[in-house]
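Reminder to self: tokens first, then the designed residues, so the page reads top to bottom the way the pipeline ran.
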């Protein structure tokens, strides 16, 4: 499991470590890791040039010490000092002693134009708000160079992004690689900041033992998901494996029913019941489904319900959602089911509720606009989870899952923009509902479902469609299960 920690937590851990180490030791560890990562990106066989962008804090200090290490290996290093009188004094002395040069920001265009690599040490975890004008100009200069420009290695964080929230207010440095120290920060895993970070590499500076057991953000890895996947035991029957009910689709949108049932069949439950007006289409595609045309409460025993995809917005649809909300089993609500959803009604439920909005639906539930949700994904998902007393899976460029009452937010690492295709969300709702029926805890079901769905989106032939994503799901299971069998044998 990958973990990320907020700045406050990282700083507290650093203080403990700093007190036990000689002065400068921690920065030396950071700079050594940074210099090694930079050296790997430099071309071989000719004189090489590195430009350091140096702000006035310790982030600039890291860049200067790493620059000194590179200069000692024969690299031509020039530090562009944004604030020369406030640049890290010991770092500056080390760079100069190693033969590195310094220049003011007015020399930026020439220095950056000749550089094979740029090291962004303007701000790290001490950055506040959008970049100030001098720094913003450097970001714009590099942005203009685009693909033609040199690769940028961000020190700890791309300057200009918010470490805790992943928000970006104004200009920020766009990195090829971010070398982060001690612990990953939430912003490196959450859009829009994540897009600025490029590849993220963690350098161990000895912080781990000082960090709390519970991170602020977590991302499941393949082995975690494989361990969570429900497997049938020898004595299993369909109820022991779980039966999931799907109340989706309408005469107008029969396809949503088929897609949600398809996702549910690939989620590990022992059987899928379908309740609604699109039964004929569902049966034509999936004859193993137990179909009924009446309300969900008369469909027979289930261990979870999925409601909402394609139900439309007429009174029948509302009645279906109400009927499902009255059930005493975990319920997943998606799409049309989220429209006008009453927070008090959801909070009053005794069994778990999982909501799976995209940014537009989340904005409607919060009474804001879509752009606001996209700019502040972490804040939005937490707020929704609290307001509804439900687990919320916020779909999108980085899918996030939050539970009410706090605890780590999950970020899904397998997403792909190819999943932004009609009906893909219907498949996800069935998949997560099925994992709920199989007995996974709501957060685990949501995080596992998002992981499987993302991998299927990557495996499906390009361009992925909701149908090909569903078809790829068995292969995703296969890959995850066979990987754990190999690792448990070895
Ligand atoms: N504390 C520690 O023990 C360690 C810290 N390290 C480094 O130190 C960094 C934190 O250092 P600092 O606390 O000095 O803070 P930073 O260096 O991240 O940033 C603070 C400086 O940036 C300026 N600044 C703030 N917001 C700005 C903005 N929007 N635009 C332009 N300039 C802005 C401030 O005036 C201040 O001078 C970490 O990110 C990491 O790179 C590492 O050396 C590892 C050890
Ligand atoms: K930086």
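Designed residues (490 positions):
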């Amino acid at each position: 499991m990958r973990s990320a920690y907020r700045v406050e937590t990282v700083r507290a851990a650093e203080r403990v470590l700093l007190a036990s180490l000689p002065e400068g030791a921690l920065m030396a560890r950071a700079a050594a890791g940074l210099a090694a990562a930079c050296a790997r990106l430099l071309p071989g066989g000719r004189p090489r040039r590195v430009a350091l962008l140096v702000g006035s804090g310790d982030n600039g200090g890291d860049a200067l010490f790493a620059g000194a290490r590179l200069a000692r290996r024969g690299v031509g290093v020039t530090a562009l000092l944004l604030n020369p009188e406030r640049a890290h004094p010991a770092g500056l002395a080390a760079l100069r002693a190693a033969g590195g040069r310094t220049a003011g920001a007015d020399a930026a265009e020439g220095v950056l134009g000749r550089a094979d690599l740029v090291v962004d040490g303007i701000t790290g975890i001490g950055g506040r708000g959008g970049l100030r004008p001098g720094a913003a100009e450097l970001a714009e200069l590099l942005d203009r160079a685009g693909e033609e420009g040199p690769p940028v290695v961000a020190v700890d964080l791309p300057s200009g992004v918010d470490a805790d929230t992943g928000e970006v207010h104004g200009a920020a440095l766009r990195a090829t690689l971010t070398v982060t120290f001690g612990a990953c920060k939430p912003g490196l895993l959450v859009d829009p900041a994540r897009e600025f970070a490029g590849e993220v590499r963690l350098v161990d500076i000895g912080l781990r033992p000082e960090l709390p057991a519970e991170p602020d953000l977590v991302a499941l890895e393949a082995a975690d998901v494989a361990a969570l996947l429900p497997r049938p035991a020898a004595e299993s029957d369909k109820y022991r494996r779980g039966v999931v009910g799907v109340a989706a689709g309408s005469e107008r949108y029969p396809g949503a029913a088929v897609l949600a049932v398809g996702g549910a069949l690939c989620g590990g439950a022992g059987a899928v019941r379908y309740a609604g007006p699109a039964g004929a289409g569902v049966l034509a595609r999936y004859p193993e489904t137990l179909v009924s045309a009446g309300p969900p409460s008369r469909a027979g025993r289930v261990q979870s319900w999925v409601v909402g995809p394609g139900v439309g917005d007429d009174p029948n649809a509302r009645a279906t959602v109400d009927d499902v909300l009255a059930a005493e089993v975990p319920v997943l609500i998606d799409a049309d089911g989220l429209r006008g959803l009453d927070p008090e009604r959801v909070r009053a439920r005794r069994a778990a509720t999982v909501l799976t909005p995209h940014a537009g639906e989340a904005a409607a539930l919060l009474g804001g606009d879509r752009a606001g949700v996209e700019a502040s994904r972490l804040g939005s998902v937490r707020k929704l989870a609290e307001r509804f007393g439900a687990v919320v899976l916020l779909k999108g460029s980085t899918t996030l899952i939050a539970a009410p009452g706090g605890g780590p937010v999950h970020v899904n690492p397998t997403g792909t923009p190819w999943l932004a295709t009609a009906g893909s969300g219907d498949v996800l709702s069935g998949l997560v509902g099925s994992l709920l029926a199989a007995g996974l805890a709501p957060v685990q079901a949501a995080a596992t479902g998002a992981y499987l769905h993302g991998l299927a989106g990557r495996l499906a032939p390009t361009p992925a469609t909701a149908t090909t994503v569903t078809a790829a799901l068995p292969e995703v299971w296969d890959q995850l299960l066979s990987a754990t069998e190999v690792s448990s044998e070895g």
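The first helix runs from residue 7 to 19.
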